[in-house]
C-alpha cells in the first residue's frame, strides 16, 4: 500500500525535555493508527510537528511525496492534512454549522464580516457532512452551550469540512460518555471510510484502541517504543504494566 505520510527521525527539545527524540512513523493510505503512551511521552508534540505547529530541530516530514517540514500549518492544511485538538479550537459564540462554514471560508480566503453564512454556496454540503458525523441535530446550536464531548466532535467535523486526505485526532473520545463512545466512533469511522481518509489518533481508552485501530504505536520518551496490531500491543506485558496500568 502507498505511503501517505513519513515522519523521519524528528527531534525537538524544550529546555531540558526531549519531547521528540528520534520520532519516526510511516503511514500507509487508509490506515487507522492509534498512538498510545503515558502523559508527557510526546504524542501531542508529534502531531504538532507533523501539522506545522512546531518545527523540529532535525528530521523531516514527507506527505504524499512532498517535504512539508518547513511549511506553515495553513499550507499543510491546504495540502490535505487535517487535525482536531485535545482542546477544541472553535468559535464558541457561533453555531456549529457556522464553524464549518467559517473554516471553509478561511481556507478559500473568502471570509468577510458581511458574509451571510446561510447563503454560503457550500451550506448544503456542510449540513450533509454534519449528518454523516451524527451532528445534524445540533447544527444550529451555539458551540459554547455544548458539552465537551460534543465540542470535540464538532472540532473533528470542522477538520473534515476541509476534506483532508489524512487526519490527526487528539483524543477524539475524551469527554464522550462511556455509553456513547462506540456509537461516536462507529459514526466517525463510517465518515472516514466514506471519504477514504487516513486517520492517526491519540487515545487513552484501550477499548476504543482495540476496536478501531488497524495498528498501534506506543509512544515513550519522545518516540515509538513499540508498534504492532492492537492484539499484539494490548497483550504485551510491558504495555499492560506501564501504559494500561494493568499488572501482569
Ligand atoms: N511548548 C512547550 N514548552 C515546553 N515544554 C513542552 C511544550 N510542549 C510540550 N512540552 C513538554 O514536552 C513533553 C511532551 O509533551 P506532550 O504534550 O507532547 O506529551 P503527550 O504524550 O501528548 O502528553 P498527554 O498525554 O499528557 O497529552 C512534556 O514533558 C511536556 O511538558
UniProtKB/TrEMBL annotation:
Pfam family of the protein (one): ABC_tran
SUPFAM superfamilies referenced in this protein's UniProt entry, alphabetically: P-loop containing nucleoside triphosphate hydrolases
Sorted UniProt keywords: ATP-binding, Nucleotide-binding, Transport
A single GO molecular function term of this UniProt record: ATP binding
PROSITE patterns according to UniProt: ABC_TRANSPORTER_2
Domain ABC transporter as annotated: residue spans: 5-246
InterPro entries per UniProt: AAA+_ATPase, ABC_AA/LPS_Transport, ABC_transporter-like_ATP-bd, P-loop_NTPase
Keyword Chaperone: no
Protein name: ABC transporter ATP-binding protein
Species, as recorded: Bosea rubneri
Amino acid at each position: 500500500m502507498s505511503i501517505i505520510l513519513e515522519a523521519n527521525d524528528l527531534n525537538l527539545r524544550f529546555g531540558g525535555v526531549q519531547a521528540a527524540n528520534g520520532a519516526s512513523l510511516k503511514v500507509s493510505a487508509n490506515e487507522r493508527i492509534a498512538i498510545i503512551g503515558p502523559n508527557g511521552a510526546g504524542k501531542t508534540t508529534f502531531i504538532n510537528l507533523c501539522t506545522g505547529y512546531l518545527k523540529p530541530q532535525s528530521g523531516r516530514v514527507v506527505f504524499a511525496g512532498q517535504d512539508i517540514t518547513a511549511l506553515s500549518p495553513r499550507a499543510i492544511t491546504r495540502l490535505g492534512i487535517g487535525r482536531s485538538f485535545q482542546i477544541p479550537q472553535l468559535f464558541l459564540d457561533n453555531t456549529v454549522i457556522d464553524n464549518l462554514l467559517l473554516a471553509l471560508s478561511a481556507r478559500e480566503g473568502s471570509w468577510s464580516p458581511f458574509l451571510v453564512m446561510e447563503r454560503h454556496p457550500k451550506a448544503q454540503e456542510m449540513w450533509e457532512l454534519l449528518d454523516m458525523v451524527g451532528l445534524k441535530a445540533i447544527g444550529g446550536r451555539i458551540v459554547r452551550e455544548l458539552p465537551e464531548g460534543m465540542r470535540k466532535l464538532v472540532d473533528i467535523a470542522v477538520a473534515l469540512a476541509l476534506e483532508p486526505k489524512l487526519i490527526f485526532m487528539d483524543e477524539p473520545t475524551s469527554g464522550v460518555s462511556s455509553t456513547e463512545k462506540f456509537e461516536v466512533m462507529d459514526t466517525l469511522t463510517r465518515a472516514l471510510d466514506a471519504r477514504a481518509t487516513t486517520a492517526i489518533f491519540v487515545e487513552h481508552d484501550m477499548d476504543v484502541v482495540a476496536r478501531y485501530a488497524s495498528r498501534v504505536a506506543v509512544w515513550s520518551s519522545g518516540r515509538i517504543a513499540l508498534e504492532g496490531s492492537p492484539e499484539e500491543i494490548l497483550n504485551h506485558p510491558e504495555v499492560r504494566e506501564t501504559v494500561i496500568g494493568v499488572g501482569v
